[in-house]
């Protein structure tokens, strides 16, 4: 199993709305993630910079690789107004390099 991390960016003042939407995440979206090997997925917020820090374990595809799936595109449409997004409405996502790990 692999662990990856990436960061995304919220628009200013959108942290409460981001959390509200994720508290009601669509069951079909979480099912797709699990079916494709994503587990133990956490997102953290740096409130000073509105930067989101995501970590997930993979035994298949990362959530960022499922963009061709209809439910993922619908989620992007739903979320693009509160975070930095690409022209296809996917979140701007920057992979992070692991520099330390403690077992």
Automatic annotation (TrEMBL):
EC number: 5.1.3.32
Signal peptide: none
Gene3D superfamilies: 3.30.70.100
Highest taxon above the source species: Bacteria
Listed Pfam families: rhaM (PF05336)
Keywords of this entry: Carbohydrate metabolism, Cytoplasm, Isomerase, Rhamnose metabolism
Keyword Cytoplasm: yes
Annotated GO biological process: rhamnose catabolic process
Claim: Cytoplasm is one of the keywords in the record: yes
Gene Ontology molecular functions: L-rhamnose mutarotase activity
InterPro entries tied to this protein: Dimeric_a/b-barrel, L-rhamnose_mutarotase, Rham/fucose_mutarotase
NCBIfam families for this protein: YiiL_rotase (TIGR02625)
Protein name: L-rhamnose mutarotase
